[in-house]
Specification:
DNA ligase i, domain 1, globular, ATP binding, six-stranded mixed β-sheet, D-amino Acid Aminotransferase, Chain A, domain 1, zinc ion binding, 29 helices
C-alpha cells in the first residue's frame, strides 16, 4: 500500500512497492503545480513525478513532486552528474499504462537526454575518468555490444533506437515546423496530379526543408497529412467551434460567424474573425512546431466540458498566426484540403506501404518498416492485430444472374444480406472491442451484452477477430426487425427482442491470421469452433450455388421474404480488407433498376452544402401534400443525382426564402420536425419543381412527417418538367405505393443467361460428399469431426479441447488443391444413387431455400441448362394490358427500351388502329407513369390518378 500523508491542502503519496523513483500519469484534477515552472498541470495532461523524502514527517514517508514532461527533462540537463535521472522506460512507474504516442515521446526525451549528457562528457577538458556507469545508465545511442549489458537490456535499447528512427522529435528543427507543414499542404493543394503529389511528399521526406536531408518526425508528418486515419475524437461540430471561438475572440460575433459559416468552411470563418479579434489577436510570427500542435490536439480530445475547451482554444489562439489557427481547425475537422489520401502519401515512403496499411491500418508500423527500406521498393509486411480494426471486405452491385456466373464460373456461396449494422469484433482474453463499418467504436448499448455470449459461442478461443452484422430479432417469432430499430429508444419499444450477432467471417483465431485462407476454410473454422447461442450469436445463412436457375430462385425467395438481398462470394477467395470482390444483389439493382421504389415529390426546402459545395443549396428537402391537414409533409432529404451544372442552374430556378434553420420562421403550410428545419424554404410549394426520387425501397423514418414514410438511399432520377405540384404524388398515393411495395412479388425474367456451369456431381469448396455443408446449427459430433479434420490436414490446431476419435471426411483444403475438372473425369456417379446436396435449416433461421429446383423428387439431376434451352419455357407473365392499345410510347422516356418491351410482354399492343388509351402530357391523356408504375408493381394501378 502507498503511504499517504495529508498536510494542509497538499496531498503526498508515498512510493509504491516497486521501489521506482519516478512515476508518470495523466493529471487527474489539474490542481498540482509544476515544481519547475510553477504553472498548474491541466487535467488530462501528461505529467512526471519525482519521488523524494517527505520533509513534513518523521516517519520516513515519501512524496511526489510533479513536473511537466518537458520541465522534468530540462531540469535533468542542469543537474549534477550524481543526480538520479530517468535513464530507461523501466525507471518510470506507470509507463506501460500510457498511450502509444506518449510512450514514444518519453523514449525520445530519454534518448535526447542521454545524447546531451554524452556530448558533455566528451567535451570535458579534465583527464580524470569517471567511474563506469551501471547498466541502467548506458545511453541509448551507445555501443550495446559490450559484454556487461544483458541480452534483455540490449533488446530494449535496440527497440528504443527503432522508435527514435521513426520519431525524431527535435522540435527546434525546421523540418518539424508547423509553418513548413502548412507550406507543404499548400503545394499539394495547388497540384492536381496525384503522381505529382506523391513526388512532392517524397522529395520533402528525402531532402527536408534545407535540401540537406530530412530531420523531422516522419510518423508525425504522415499522421498530420492523413488526419482522417486514426482519428482523434473531438466531438466539435462547426457551429460548436463558432460558439467556442466567439468566446475566445470576444464580442457579440457568434451570429455573424454562423452566417459566415454558410459558405461551408468553418476554418475560413475562424481565420476571418481571428484576424479581426481584439481580445485575442493573432501572433505576428509563426513559431509552432508539429509536436506542440500534436500536444494541443491530444489535450483537446480529452476535454468534454465547454469551459475547458474554450480555455484550451484560447491558449492555442494566442500562440497562432491566422494561418496556423486555420490549419489547426482543419485538423480538428479531419480535412486539410490537400485532396490526397493514404495511397498518395504512403507511396512517397514505399510503393508497398499502402497495401500493408490497407490490410493492417497500423500506420506507425507501416512508417517504421518503410523507413527501414530507405524509401526503396522492399516488401512491407504488417499483420493484423487485436485492437486495430481491419477494413471490412465489401461487395459491388450485381445486376444480373449472368454477371454473377461470369465472376464466379465455378460456383459461389450465396449468403443472406442482413439489413443491420456491420460490426467487427476483436477478443483478447476477457477484453472485447467492437468496431463499426467506418472503423469507429460501436456505441455500448448495442454490443455490451455480447461480452456474456461471445465466450459461450467461442469456448476454445483466446484471441479472435470476426466479421458480422448485428440486428434486432424477435425472440418469440424469430423475425428480424427492420433496419433502424437498434437505437436505444427504438429498441426499448420491442420487449420481446434481442440484439443478435450474425457471424459470416473469421479473420483471426487464437493468434493466427486467416486473411490468406480461402473462404471455405474460414467458414469451416467457424462451423467447427463456434457454438450457436440462439438469438444472440448465430452463423449467417449460406448456400452453395452452381446453376443460374438456382441463383434466380434464391434471389426471388430472399427479396419476396422481405430480406435485403444476397451476397455472393467465391469459395476460394481470401479475405481482402477494403476490396470490393464480393457481389451484392438487391431489389433496386435488378432488371435495369425497374424494381426500385420511386415517387414524384415536390421541392419544399434546401440546405447549404459543405466542402466544394459550400455556400450553395446542394441538399434538398422533398415532400408531398396531405389533403386531410392541408399541409405539406416531408418525405426525404436528397443530394444525389444532379451534376454541377444543374446545381448551379437550380440556384436561380428555385424560388427560395432563407430562414437559416430557425423553427420560428417555418411557414404554416409546412409540417416539418425541428431537427429537419432547412436553411431555405420554397416561397410557394404549388409553384415549386417536381422531381422523381428513386431509392432502394420505401422505409419508415420517424424524423419525417409523411406518416413516417421515407425513401432509403434516395437519388434524383429526373426533374419532372411535365408535372406541376398538383400532379405530384400525394400522401394518400404515397401510402398506397408503400403498401404495394411491401406486397410486391419479385419474378425475374426467365432468361438467366446461357452460362454453362459445372456439373452437380462436383463439390464446391466446403461441401462434403454426404451433403454436410455450412449450417447454422451443427451437431457437436460434426463440429468435433470438423476440428479433427483441420488437425489431421496439417493445420495449426486452434482447439484447446481434448481430441478423441477422428472420422474420415473430405477436407476443404484438399478440395481446394485438387482440380475440379480432374474430379469430374475421375469419378462416375449413377443418377439413381446420387445424393441431393441440401442445407440444413436452423430453427432460428429466417431464410432457407429448398433445393428442389436443382434436383427432382426422386433425387435425379435436373435437366442441364443446354437441354432446357431446346424447349420454350412456360409463360407466366401477368396479362396487365390485355385489350389496351396505344398508338405510340414516348421515346424520350428514360426507360423507353424496358417500357416498350414490358408493355408488349404484359399483353399490351402498339398500333394506330383501335387505340384505347392516348399517352401524352395534354389534358385528358394518360401519363406514361401509369404504364411504368403498373410494370414495376406487376399489377394494374388505378388509372384515375394518372389522367392529365
Amino acid at each position: 500500500m502507498d503511504k499517504i500523508v495529508q498536510i494542509g491542502n497538499n496531498r503526498f503519496e508515498g512510493m509504491s512497492e516497486s521501489g521506482k523513483k519516478f512515476c508518470v500519469e495523466y493529471a487527474k484534477r489539474g490542481a498540482a503545480a509544476c515544481k519547475k515552472c510553477k504553472v498548474k498541470i491541466d487535467k488530462g495532461l501528461l505529467r512526471i513525478a519525482k519521488i523524494v523524502p517527505n520533509p513534513f514527517t518523521d516517519g520516513g514517508s515519501e512524496m511526489k513532486e510533479w513536473y511537466h514532461t518537458d520541465c522534468m527533462f530540462e531540469s535533468f540537463q542542469r543537474a549534477r552528474a550524481t543526480t538520479k535521472k530517468i535513464e530507461d522506460a523501466e525507471d518510470l512507474e506507470g509507463f506501460q499504462e500510457l498511450e502509444q504516442d506518449d510512450r514514444k515521446k518519453i523514449l525520445t526525451k530519454i534518448h535526447q537526454l542521454q545524447e546531451s549528457l554524452t556530448m558533455k562528457a566528451k567535451t570535458k577538458t579534465t583527464a580524470k575518468k569517471l567511474p563506469a556507469k551501471r547498466d541502467s545508465e548506458e545511453p541509448i545511442g551507445a555501443n550495446v555490444n559490450s559484454l556487461h549489458i544483458s541480452e534483455a537490456k540490449r533488446k530494449k535499447l535496440d527497440q528504443n533506437r527503432a522508435d527514435i528512427q521513426v520519431s525524431r522529435t527535435d522540435e527546434s528543427s525546421k523540418d518539424n515546423s508547423f509553418k513548413e507543414f502548412r507550406k507543404l499542404c499548400a503545394k499539394l493543394y495547388d497540384e492536381s496530379a496525384y503522381t505529382a503529389k506523391t513526388a512532392i511528399v517524397r522529395n520533402f521526406f528525402e531532402k527536408g526543408t534545407c535540401g540537406k536531408g530530412f530531420e523531422g518526425d516522419t510518423y508525425l508528418w504522415v499522421k498530420f497529412l492523413l488526419p482522417s486515419v486514426n482519428k482523434r475524437i473531438y466531438n466539435l461540430q462547426s457551429k460548436q467551434l463558432c460558439k467556442l471561438f466567439a468566446r475566445v475572440f470576444g464580442g457579440p460575433i457568434y451570429d455573424s460567424m454562423v452566417e459566415d459559416l454558410e459558405q461551408g468552411d468553418v476554418a475560413e470563418t475562424v481565420a476571418k474573425f481571428h484576424e479581426e479579434a481584439i481580445k485575442c489577436p493573432p501572433t505576428p510570427k509563426a513559431n509552432l512546431s508539429l509536436q506542440q500542435v500534436d500536444r494541443y490536439l491530444e489535450r483537446l480530445s480529452r476535454l468534454t466540458r465547454e469551459d475547458d475547451q474554450a480555455a484550451l482554444l484560447d491558449e492555442i489562439a494566442h500562440s497562432c498566426t491566422v494561418n496556423d489557427l486555420k490549419m489547426i481547425v482543419r485538423l480538428i475537422k479531419h480535412d486539410i484540403r490537400i485532396n490526397a489520401g493514404p495511397k498518395h502519401i504512403l507511396d512517397a515512403l514505399n510503393p508497398a506501404a499502402y497495401e500493408a496499411f490497407h490490410a493492417s491500418l497500423d500506420l506507425e508500423e507501416v512508417v517504421r518498416q518503410s523507413l527501414a527500406e530507405g524509401f526503396g521498393s522492399g516488401v512491407v509486411t504488417v499483420g493484423i492485430k487485436i485492437c486495430t480494426p481491419v477494413k471490412p471486405m465489401l461487395a459491388e452491385p450485381c445486376r444480373s444472374v449472368d454477371f454473377a456466373f461470369k465472376r464466379f464460373p465455378n460456383g459461389m456461396f450465396a449468403e443472406v444480406k442482413y439489413d443491420g449494422e456491420r460490426v467487427q469484433l476483436h477478443k483478447r482474453g476477457n477484453e472485447f472491442f467492437f468496431y463499426s463499418r467506418s472503423l469507429k467504436p460501436v456505441v455500448a448499448h448495442k454490443v455490451n451484452h455480447f461480452r456474456e455470449y461471445i465466450p459461450k459461442a467461442f469456448p476454445y478461443c483466446d484471441s479472435l477477430i470476426i466479421d458480422g452484422e448485428i440486428l434486432l430479432v424477435n425472440t418469440k417469432t424469430d423475425e428480424i426487425l427492420p433496419f433502424g430499430t437498434l437505437g436505444v429508444h427504438k429498441k426499448a419499444q420491442f420487449r420481446e427482442a434481442a440484439v443478435c450477432f450474425f457471424v459470416f467471417d473469421c479473420m483471426f483465431y487464437n493468434g493466427k491470421s486467416l486473411l490468406s485462407e480461402p473462404l471455405s476454410k474460414r467458414r469451416e473454422i467457424l462451423t467447427a469452433y463456434m457454438s450457436v447461442v440462439k438469438h444472440h450469436v448465430q452463423l449467417s445463412e449460406m448456400e452453395g450455388i452452381r446453376s443460374p436457375a438456382r441463383l434466380k430462385a434464391n434471389i426471388e425467395d430472399a427479396i419476396n421474404k422481405g430480406l435485403e438481398g444476397l451476397v455472393l462470394k467465391d469459395p476460394a477467395s481470401p479475405y481482402e480488407p477494403g476490396k470490393r470482390h464480393w457481389l451484392k444483389v438487391k431489389k433496386d439493382y435488378l432488371q435495369g433498376g425497374t424494381m426500385a421504389d420511386s415517387a414524384d415529390l415536390v421541392v419544399l426546402g434546401a440546405y447549404f452544402g459543405t466542402g466544394n459545395k459550400g455556400g450553395i443549396m446542394s441538399i434538398f428537402l422533398m415532400g408531398c401534400y396531405n389533403p386531410s391537414t392541408k399541409r405539406w409533409v416531408t418525405v426525404t432529404k436528397v443530394h444525389g443525382g444532379h451534376d454541377d451544372a444543374t446545381l448551379q442552374r437550380l440556384q436561380k430556378e428555385l424560388q427560395m426564402k432563407k430562414i437559416s434553420k430557425n423553427p420560428n420562421l417555418v411557414p404554416s403550410w409546412m409540417d416539418v420536425k425541428q431537427q429537419l428545419v432547412p436553411d431555405f424554404v420554397t416561397v410557394d410549394p404549388l409553384t415549386s419543381q417536381v422531381w422523381e426520387i428513386t431509392g432502394a425501397e420505401f422505409s419508415k423514418a420517424e424524423a419525417h412527417t409523411a406518416n413516417g414514410i421515407s425513401i432509403r438511399f434516395p437519388r434524383v432520377s429526373r426533374i419532372r418538367n411535365d408535372k406541376s405540384a398538383e400532379d405530384a404524388t400525394s400522401l394518400e398515393e404515397l401510402i398506397r405505393l408503400f403498401n404495394l411495395s411491401k406486397r410486391q412479388v419479385l419474378k425475374l425474367d426467365d432468361e438467366v443467361g446461357n452460362h454453362i456451369t459445372r456439373s452437380n456431381d462436383e463439390l464446391l469448396p466446403g461441401e462434403t460428399r454426404d451433403g454436410n455443408k455450412f449450417n447454422t446449427s451443427t451437431p457437436e459430433k460434426n463440429k468435433k469431426n470438423a476440428r479433427d479434420r483441420f488437425d489431421s490436414a496439417g493445420n495449426e490446431s486452434c482447439d484447446k479441447s481434448p481430441k478423441k476419435g477422428k472420422k474420415e471426411s473430405i477436407s476443404p483444403a484438399k478440395i481446394l488443391t485438387s482440380s475440379p475438372s480432374r474430379k469430374a473425369n475421375s469419378r462416375t456417379v449413377k443418377n439413381n444413387t446420387e445424393k441431393k446436396i441440401t442445407f440444413k435449416k436452423d430453427e432460428s433461421s429466417l431464410f432457407t431455400v429448398d433445393s428442389s429446383a436443382c434436383t427432382g423428387e426422386d433425387g435425379e439431376k435436373a435437366e442441364g441448362v443446354n437441354r432446357a434451352r431446346r424447349r420454350l419455357p412456360e409463360c407466366d407473365l401477368p396479362r396487365l394490358f390485355t385489350g389496351i392499345v396505344v398508338e405510340t410510347l414516348p421515346t424520350d422516356f428514360r426507360y423507353y427500351q424496358d417500357l416498350s418491351r414490358y408493355f408488349i410482354a404484359y399483353d399490351g399492343k402498339i398500333s394506330k388502329k383501335g387505340v384505347t388509351h392516348e399517352i401524352g402530357t395534354k389534358k385528358g391523356t394518360v401519363c406514361i407513369d401509369w404504364i411504368w408504375e403498373s410494370i414495376k408493381r406487376r399489377t394494374k394501378v388505378d388509372i384515375d390518378s394518372y389522367i392529365n
